[in-house]
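User: For my dataset I need records formatted as: sequence, then structure tokens, nothing else. Please produce one.
Assistant:
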Amino acid sequence: MKQRIFIYLFIFSVLIILFQYVNSKRLLEFQNKKIDAYEVHIQTYKDSIATMQNEILNLSHFNLERNEDALSYFENKGYKVDELIPFIKDELYKLNEVSGEHPLVPYAASEGRKMMINTVKLLNHKWIIADFSDGVFWGEMFLIYEITDTQELKFNVVESFLYPFN
């Protein structure tokens, strides 16, 4: 009788171990499939990130902050580029506060509004692209800027256009 109990216990233990083995093997395979799927997703995301980084690099080609020649131009003249870039942008934005028509925007605003510069992008040590709007009409302009010997900032509009109103 005692032997039969031990045999039953042994068989029961073997069945439990077998069940645990099959169950854990099935869980392991399931987890491995999930990991493989995640690895495929990760590779896709890495490829997407690399593509986006290349696109950002291409888009930022005409950007003062990435143009070593333009930055060295300012540094050779003794300017601190970290302070100069915000200064140039701020000077353009300050022109928005001038009463009357905007001094640089060559188009009149619609009634009761004022043309204002919204976005400024410094291309290099001489050129700027800016967009302007009065809330109804909007356009873009190409500017040349210069820092005189007296540390005065001068802007000159080279080209501008106003988008047609639909």
